[in-house]
Structure formats: C-alpha cells, structure tokens
Amino acid sequence: MGKKLCGTNYPLSICFIVVNEFCERFSYYGMKAVLTLYFLSYLKWDKDLSTAIYHAFSGLCYFTPILGAIIADSWLGKFKTIIYLSIVYVIGHVIKSVGAIPTVGNTDVHIALSMVGLILIALGTGGIKPCVAAFGGDQFEEQHIKERQKFFSIFYMSINAGSVLSTLITPILRSEVKCFDSECYALAFGVPAALMVVALAVFIFGSSMYKKTPPQGNVLGEVCKCIGFAIKNRWRSSKPGLQRKHWLDWAEDMYPKRLIQEIKMVLRVLVLYIPLPMFWALFDQQGSRWTLQATRMNMAFGNSFTIKPDQMQMLNALLILVFVPIFDLIIYPLVGLCRIKITPLRKMATGMVFAALAFGAATLVEINVVKTVVEPAPAGHSLLQVYNLAGEDISVNFAGSNLFQQPIKHLQDPLEYETLPLGGSNTELHVDVTFAGNTSKCTLSFEEQKAYSLIIYKEDTKINCERVEDNIKKNEDGSPNVRFLNTQTEAINITVGETEFYVPSDYGIINKSVDQGSYEAVGCSLGLTECENLNLGLLDFGASYTFILLQESGKIVANKMVDVRENNVHIAWQIPQYALITAGEVMFSITGLEFSYSQAPTNMKSVLQAGWLLTVAFGNVIVLIVAEGAGLEQWIEFLLFGGLLLAVCVIFSIMAHFYTYVDPEQLNKLYSEEPGKEEDDGGEIKKKEIDDMPLKTREKSTRL
Questions:
Q1: What is the model's pLDDT at position 527?
Q2: CA 120 – CA 92 distance, rounded (Å)
Q3: Do 80 and 68 touch, CB atoms closer than 8 A?
Q4: Are the CB atoms for 558 and 483 separated by under 8 Å?
Q5: Is residue 428 located within the same domain as residue 459?
Q6: CA dist 472 to 450, 453, 562, Å?
Q7: Could you tell me what percentage of the chain is helix, strand and coil, using 3-state DSSP and rounding each to the nearest 5?
Q8: Where is the segment annotated Disordered (predicted)?
Q9: Cβ neighbour number for residue 325 with a 10 Å cutoff
Q10: How far is CA 199 from the centre of its chain?
Q11: What is the rounded CA–CA span in Å between residue 35 and residue 40?
Q12: What is the dihedral of CA 124, 126, 132, 137, to 10 degrees?
C-alpha cells in the first residue's frame, strides 16, 4: 500500500503526476503558441510554409503516441517510458531554444536546430501522451473508482490550467522582453524548456511512491497480427466452397474467437473515424491561420491593455472550462426536454456543423481584414506613390501612361498606390515633372511587382526626382512600420519608444518597426543640437507611416503620411469564431472520447485511443497539403474548409445512421456465462440497440 493523502483514499503519488502534467502542458502549449510567429519573424518563412511546418509538427505529435504505447506495453512499462521520453523531450526543448539565439550560427543553423528540436519534442510529447494519464489511474486501488474519476477531473484541470497560463505568458516573453536587439524567442522557448525540466524532476522525485505495473504485452500489435493473418489466410485458402460470414473469421485457425469479436467491435468504430480528420483540420488552425489573421487586426483594448496575436489561442482553453458545465447542466437537458434524442454520434455531427460555422465567421472577418492590405502589383507592373516636397503643386507624367492626371499638391498624402505598367521585368521609364510652368525630365528604373515612392523636391531652382523602394507588407506581429525622410542638411537622431533612428541628411531615409502607441513628444537631436520634441501622434497596428522632417518657423516638424492603412478590424471580432469552434469541440471531441470508450472492449480501449489520435494527425496533414498546394486567397481557403467539413458531416451522419450501438459488457457475459454459445448463426455477437445508453466515463479535455 502506498502513502495516502491525509484522511483520503487518494495516493500521495498522484500529486507528482498532476504537477508533472501541468508543467508538461505549459511546456508544450507555451512553445507552440509562439511557433508560427517564430517561423515568420525569425526564420523569415512565408505564411504558407510556416503554416505547413506548424501542422507537420502537430501531426507528428499525434503519430508518435502509437510508438509510445508500443514501447510502454511491450518493453519498458509506463514509468520508464515516461522517464526516457521526457529526457528526449527536454533535449528537444533545449535544442529549439538554442536555435532561437541569433548569435548561434547563421540562418541555416537556426533552421536545422529548430527542426531537430521540433522532431525530438514531437517524439517526447507524443510518446508520453498515452502513458501519463493511464499511469495516474494505475495508482488507485480497484475499489476506489470514485476517487479515480475525480483524479481524472483534477488531471484535466491541470492540463487546461497549463494551457491557459502558457498561451498567456510566452507571447509576453516573446514581445515584451528584448534580447539581441529584437524579440526574445530564445526566452519564449527557454521558459517552456525549463518547465519541462521541472516536470521531469517532479516525476522522478515521486518515484519511490508509484505503483509500477510491468509491461503486459502489445495489444495493438496483437490486433495487427490477427488482421494480417485473417487476410493472408483468406487469400491462401484453396478449399472450394468454404465460406466465412466475416473476413476476420479466417483468423479463427490461430486466434481465439473472443479476440476476433473484440476486433470486429473496434473496426466498426474505426470505420466511423474515417471522416473525422476533417474536423481537426479546422480545429488546429487556431494556432496557425487564425493567429496570422490576428496579426492583421487591431489588438488594443483602450489605452492601457493590448493583447498579443498569439495570446488569442488561450480563449479556447478558457471557453472549454466554461462551456463543459453549461452543455452538461443546461443545454443537453433542455434539448432532452424537447423530446429530441441525444446520441453521441448526433452530438459529434452537430459539433462538425459548429466548427464549419466558426470558419464561416472567420471568412467574414478575413474579408474585412484584407481591405487594409496593399495587394502586390501583378506581373509586368509595379506600385508607385508620389511625395511632392517641391513647395508648390506639380504635375507628373509617365511616358505611355495615364497615371497622375490631377496635379499633386505640396505634402499631399498619397493615400493609396497607383499601378504602374512596365515594358518588362526591369524597365527604365522617363518621367516629366512640371513645376511653375517649367518641365524637368527624370529617368528612373523600376522592377515588376515591387512598390516605390517617388520623391519630388527642389534644390535651388532645379527639380530632383528620388526613387525609393517601399515595404508594403504588414509586420507579422502587428507592429507599425515607421520611416523618416530627412530634408535637412544635417543628420537627425530620433528615439521612438525603445527604437532609435539615425536619419542621414539631404533626403536620407530610414525604416524600422516600432511598438504600437501614441507618440506625442518624441525626442530628437539635429547634429549636436537638441531639437524640440516631435509629435508623431498614434502609430497604430499594421500601418506604415512616412514622416517628412521639415523646418518650420525655426524648428523641426514631422509631417505624417500614411503609406499602408492601419488594421481597422478589432481582434474582438475573433471571439465569435473561437466560441463556435470551442462549442464544436465540446460536442465533437469530448463526446467522441466518451463514445470510443463506451464502445470498446476493456482490453481494446488503447487501440481505439490510438485510432482517435491518428484522426488528429491526419487532420493536420490535410492542412499541410492545402497550405502548400492550393495557393488560395485566405478567405477562400477558410470558406473551402468550412464547406468541406459540412460535406463530411453529411457523410458522417449517414454512416452514423446505420451504426448500431453495442454494450461491451455483453461480451464479458457471453464468454464467462455461456462459453458454448458465444456466437449466433453468422458468427456475430447479438447486439442490443441502446442509443440512449449512459456513457461510462467523462473525459473533460482533449489537451492530452
């Protein structure tokens, strides 16, 4: 008998398991929360590649549990499997953190370290996934069923607590702490690594208190061997006229009939799993596509609070804690009062509909979000805007083009880019600039699909043309871009928040990103002389600004131009899609776990759990394929995913209609009480339809 918590039947050892799970989930979700932005901002990958690698990693995390289950069941047992694979997990985190240190090698080294780290993390987290919860359940005596059920509730609460805190904290570490003169991804990955070390240390510390069961054989392997033998035996059978009612019955020559019947029950459920990956293809985009959408939204809540785009993922974990009791205590009973039969498969189908609606909401948000995005020029064209610094109105004429038909006023904000046609991919164009009745000619070169600003200024009596290349892409973390154009004969130093600008003289220009906020008194110095504070006003999320530094009445002023408009859709508009996807998760995922548990024979529950986790893995594979292969506009991609899930829901509903619920306990009675009558005429177990069967267990979270 192990040590008990004071006055209870709870083993003291479960305290170490619960703390271990909290730290491990903090480690996993904390690292994953900032992963997409790490790919974009640090490794400089594009959105599609970042999304593809994110989902490849997520998919691998759900393929490896099968490996962990096989190792635990056949070789090491749960305790040693958790220890050894947690060490692999820690090594992966450390390598991932080192790869985020800018001074360690070049970009290729960072990519290599990141990929090795992610692979080891996937092996670690996936390998221990099927072991930790089961190991916790092993600590209880058989007669303490209620205590075991309460333990699982506490266990799942620790999972959600770790998820909420990590997705709140690690984005702050990424953005608020500066290291190596940039965002501190090394710290954002390092803290989860430290938590995983704590998780391993806590688990090892409780070693002497654990009840450790030895490996009991690989059930999954036995199932595969039985299926393989049935197929091989059926293929090789040469007896004419010999028939079996079910193809698995061909395994009766080597395997017991009970095992064959259990496999039949499992296969019926696994067939229902075939459409399920589509739900996960939508659900797991919260950390990729939805996070990318958040970077192009207004993230300020008043003047005092700003949310990070990667912090929005915590909404799912928070809403799970709210929605589970609401659905169990209010919604499901109310639906029952309307005399609508609630079955697990109907709940799952409804969950699919809610997930599709979530992507419908995401589509509407995306359509409005992209209105502030500057689309790149098509092939054979470039984008152009004109700054008139000549002091009077000017006319600009490009040979062979009808752009800029109206005069351009002095210091006029361009507001939007014009599309300039080119004769080839790299073209020199002649520009006529008319000022005060005189025309000057400029010859400038342009490259297709790039954006430029044409600066027209007067030097003595001569008109000069200066062409500078623009960055029209919004920053991936949502911060605004600022550039200063210095018209003075001396260089100017400007400090905006924590960002310093050294702006060269004589129409020198420099561009950097800064933190969002209001800057009404920015310090600057002109040569060795301090100049009066500049009023830059509000620098908002996603915008790009050009400040033209002029001298008026003996002091330097900053004339503000907007190159790329600010994000004008508030991030709160993502809340409906998170609420819908979480409602879908409650009905689909939690119910699916309950359904799988209730329909599986006792010794086959691990097989169905492996099958369930594989649906998550294949869902991520679907996103990987679409992200890399489709090349669709984002709102169209969202709409495509929603439509596909609705189509899959129809297919799943038809399959569910023909599914007959079974009670696995009948199998035990059949083989224990009537060993000679275990089969009917067709070799199948007689089944009782129990559509309203009470589910035997409630697993309140899918964050294992």
A1: 67
A2: 5
A3: no
A4: no
A5: yes
A6: 9, 11, 11
A7: 55, 20, 30
A8: 672-704
A9: 10
A10: 24
A11: 9
A12: -160
Residue 351 has φ and ψ, to the nearest 5°, of -60, -40
Phi/psi at 409 (5° precision): -75, 160
Count of Cβ atoms closer than 10 Å to residue 448 Cβ:
19
Q: Is residue 233 part of a domain?
A: no
One-letter amino acid for residue 331 of the chain: I
What band does 240 get if pLDDT is binned at 50, 70 and 90? low
pLDDT value at residue 702: 42
Q: Residue for token digits 């119910």?
A: 591
Read off the pLDDT of residues 58-69 as tens digits, 9 standing for 90 and up.
999 999 988 888
Q: How far apart (Å, rounded) are the C-alpha atoms in residues 442 and 429? A: 8
Query: For 407, which DSSP code?
Result: P
Length of the chain: 704
Report d(CA 26, CA 165) in Å as an integer. 7
pLDDT of res. 615: 92
Domain co-membership, 137 together with 57: yes
What angle in degrees, to the nearest 10, is found between the helix axes of 605-629 and 107-138?
Answer: 160
DSSP 572: G
* Alpha-carbon torsion, ordered 171, 174, 176, 180, to 10 deg: 180
Same domain (yes/no): 379, 368: no
Distance of CA 667 to the CA centre of its chain: 42
**Quick one: 338 and 380 in the same domain?**
no
Q: Are strands 508-513 and 517-519 parallel, antiparallel or unpaired?
A: unpaired
Reading the block at residue 489, the tokens are 């004969």
* Same domain? 500 vs 537: yes
Instruction: Tell me the three state secondary structure of residue 489.
Output: coil
Q: What percent of the chain has pLDDT over 90?
A: 45
491: Cβ contacts below 8 Å, ≥ 6 apart = 502, 503, 504, 505, 508, 527
Which amino acid is present at 451? Answer: A
Write out pLDDT tens, residues 539-561: 999 999 999 998 887 788 899 99
Q: Looking at the structure, tell me whether residues 445 and 522 fall in a common domain.
A: no
Evaluate whether 523 touches 509 at the Cβ level (below 8 Å): no
CATH number at residue 324: 1.20.1250.20
Whether residues 520 and 410 fall in one domain: no
Residue 248 lies in a domain: no
| 194 shares its domain with 209 | yes
CATH number at residue 411: 2.60.40
Q: What is the mean pLDDT of residues 515-524?
A: 89
Angle between helices 185-205 and 77-98 (to 10 degrees): 160
Using alpha carbons, select from 581, 609, 558 the residue that is nearest to residue 318.
581
Q: Model's pTM, two decimal places? A: 0.83
At 336 the pLDDT is 85
**How many alpha carbons fall within 13 Å on the CB side of residue 92?**
24
Three-class secondary structure of residue 297 per DSSP: coil
Q: Which long-range contacts (CB under 8 A, 24 or more apart) does 422-426 make?
A: 422/380, 422/381, 422/382, 422/446, 422/448, 424/380, 424/448, 425/380
Distance between start and end Cα atoms, the chain: 28
Residues of the domain holding 532? 479-566
- The residue with greater pLDDT, 593 or 692, is 593
Tokens of 490: 């001396």
Torsions phi, psi for 329 (to 5 deg): -95, -20
Domain contains 644: yes
Q: Which residues does residue 560 pair with via DSSP β-bridges, in sequence order?
A: 547
What's the Cα-to-Cα distance from 643 to each of 159, 360, 394, 631, rounded to whole Å?
32, 9, 52, 17
**CA dihedral over 6, 8, 13, 14, signed as positive or negative:** negative
Q: Which SS3 state, helix, strand or coil, does residue 185 take?
A: helix
